[in-house]
């Protein structure tokens, strides 16, 4: 037999590329389902034929070429899921489905708690390798995402994307109920609670609930006595930022409205008029439901809400009802005599955290042990 004769085993070299048909992702997207099926069937038949004669062609690694083409075909099929929305990998724990196996594996670790990727610098572990890579930038100082507008660089791509919106004023997260838009998804989630009425952040001291975690943190200062804002001019400390700001301005604003009874001065007449109610005992805000009167508008508004809020938690001892279970628990101390707040300096116990805080401040002002102070006898003035 001559070279090139079909019967000659030593035929001219044939590469797998000579018989394989390849498509680019763009070309593949143009095929209809029947054409794609035909392609797969033909290619599988071709691979089987090549594999069956692979041993006779010692100069060619048919098996490697076969696997290579199979991987390409597999990649195409996985890519198709972007367009079809197919999600074949479903979590048995929560039912969430995924297009890619790697994403499915990463998700499963949320339920198992497995964190196989550990940082060699600090020992912190992660469930995803990509998260470890981002974390490593904390140690290396790498910040690969730089803003072209201002030059600021970021470690994490998400932080970089959020920052870019500050230049464009883009607000991609819109509330479907009222149309209000936000730059950050977390801000939208917090806003939606206004519509649902959900208040997931509850104070363990008094039972009051809040829409935002930050509001709860600020509220807790009532119980802890923390006053983080201190005036540099006079040393006075404040629990909240806005009163602190208002106070700071008072050092630079002329106080031309002075109370004739006590000498206290104010920068505006409205504040002086409100102050004078202390002396006149005027209470212009009266509740229409119960007739109780108040000196200040905010106290009146707070009281009015007590009539509108449901009070489903009733005290079995005295019948008084409360809107929150935690408030009922605090009230029950009147009947049980429980005083959970004990002063470490003098051993005195208190029923309420607010009373305990006031007492503690007494020690701060006067280091003398108050339990040893003898109260003066009251003098009756004829």
Automatic annotation (TrEMBL):
Example GO BP: regulation of DNA-templated transcription
SUPFAM superfamilies: beta-beta-alpha zinc fingers, KRAB domain (Kruppel-associated box)
Residue ranges occupied by any C2H2-type domain in the UniProt entry: 89-116, 117-144, 145-172, 173-200, 201-228, 229-256, 257-284, 285-312, 313-340, 341-363
Localization, UniProt: Nucleus
GO MF entry, a single one: DNA binding
Superkingdom of this protein's organism: Eukaryota
Keywords linked to the UniProt accession: DNA-binding, Metal-binding, Nucleus, Repeat, Transcription, Transcription regulation, Zinc, Zinc-finger
CC annotations in GO: nucleus
Domain annotation KRAB: ranges: 14-101
Keyword match Transit peptide: no
InterPro entries: C2H2-ZF_domain-containing, KRAB, KRAB_dom_sf, Znf_C2H2_sf, Znf_C2H2_type
Pfam families named among the record's database cross-references: KRAB, zf-C2H2
Function: May be involved in transcriptional regulation.
Family: Belongs to the krueppel C2H2-type zinc-finger protein family.
Name of the protein described by the UniProt record: Zinc finger protein 791
Protein's organism: Rousettus aegyptiacus (Egyptian fruit bat)
